[in-house]
Amino acid sequence: MRILLFTHYYEPEIGAPQRRWRGLVREFVEHGHEVAVCAPVAHYPHRRADALAVERPPVWRWTDGRHGESVLRVPYVPSSGTLPGQLIDQSVSSLASALAAVTMRRIRPDVLISTTPGLPMPFAASAVASALRIPHIAEVRDAWPDLIADSSLVRRALGGRLPAGAAQWLESSALPAVFHSALRSADALVATTESFAAALRGRDMPPVTVVRNTSDVSAWPPRAARRRVGTDLHILYVGTVGRSQDLESVVRAVADVTGVHLRIVGAGAQWEELRDLASTLTDRIEFFPQTTGAALESHWTWAHTGLVSLADVPSFERTVPSKLVSVMARRVHVTGVVAGEAASIIRTSSGGSVSHPGDAGQLRRLLTALRDDPDSTLVDDRPLTWLRDHASPRAAAAMYLNLLGEVRR
Asked: Is domain 217-389 classified as CATH 3.40.50.11260?
């Protein structure tokens, strides 16, 4: 089978979408399928590709990927770091991918997969699938378009320059309707959570399959023994530092609870703002740039618990951050400031402790309890069992390949 993938995020970049598709592409190729990937010049999480310390491949030329796939790099727009800048970047790359794909009539793919983020991808993929007369699977990794209204996307993008009524209409009605129309044009949808899949099924959509975010449980050794009584609690956050994570609430809670230390390792729109805030509150919060390899492992060796945090937004109750399964696979206790399905997974798997987003008092009490009880951050094999049953990389690839076979019939 010839599989074409449209994605805005692909290795050698670092991040959840990149890890997901690295694993899936590798599995597809190992099963004997041909995979072609259209992606912009690697630049995430930076604003320019030059800031990513990797070899820059040629644009508009197919090259060999690391896993036996073919990769076509298309142009990107250096981002201003703002939401409009990101959308412009994603739109240009989506259009470029579409232009490249419609030239593939002579070696036509058998199926096209698009994945969000970025938001314009399903629109570009829908046009290409129609032009090439091939089935299209639209993967929706987050709870889009629900997040358009929940995150006040229009008001944030335009800086309040649009009248409130018009912005609300765009966020709650017009833009979701357009996005839903793109999803309805697909032959099948993929969601990463059961709760969001159920929401999509209630909206007159094509068939929805759940393929969860995954992590390899065999990649990480057992953790060290329990903390000593009286030692401070070490919390580690690795990932995007933006409004969606609401790390400001965690920073303020840590500042209020003595004996708790927080490290934030990552990048994002609020990194500098959050670092400046923390510096005025406490010296127990440290910030580090995004990293990998031995440097990242040293942070995890330091940590007693891994933080997974989302803002108090309704659509996030149908979201399971990919970092949750990553922390569980590392056999690290999870401190989850989450609700809905993510909170349910932590409780069901006995993977950690949960505080409801937006409840500052509950979070302070949780941090105090974790600090005072060294045994509270110990985890057994139950989170690994949950991952093997629900989030195995091989099982995810098998589900995807079964879906690809169905849409071709």
From this structure: no
Tens-digit pLDDT profile for residues 163-184: 777 778 777 777 878 888 889 9
Strand order in the sheet with 260-267: 285-289, 260-267, 233-240, 305-309, 333-337, 352-355
CA distance 90 to 314: 25
- CA dist 250 and 133 (Å) reads 49
Euclidean distance between CA atoms 348 and 342, whole angstroms: 10
Of 76, 97, 75, nearest to 7 (Cα)? 97
What pTM, to 2 d.p., does this model score? 0.86
Report how far apart, in Å, the C-alpha atoms of 216 and of each of 59, 191, 244, 330, 392 are: 32, 20, 26, 9, 7
Q: 288 with 261: CB under 8 angstroms? A: no
Domain 2-214+392-408 shares a fold with domain 217-389: yes
Report the percentage of the chain scoring pLDDT > 90.
Answer: 58
Q: Are residues 251 and 240 in contact, defined by beta-carbon separation less than 8 angstroms?
A: no
Q: Answer whether CATH 3.40.50.2000 is correct for domain 2-214+392-408.
A: yes
Going by C-alpha positions, the residue among 352, 357, 314 that lies closest to residue 337 is: 357
Please report which helix (H) or strand (E) contains residue 141, including its range: none
H or E stretch at 350: none
185 Cβ contact list (under 8 Å, min separation 6):
126, 129, 130, 136
How many C-alpha atoms does 41 have within 13 Å on its Cβ side?
A: 23
The rounded distance, in Å, linking the Cα atoms of 45 and 48 is: 9
Annotated domain spans of the chain:
2-214+392-408, 217-389
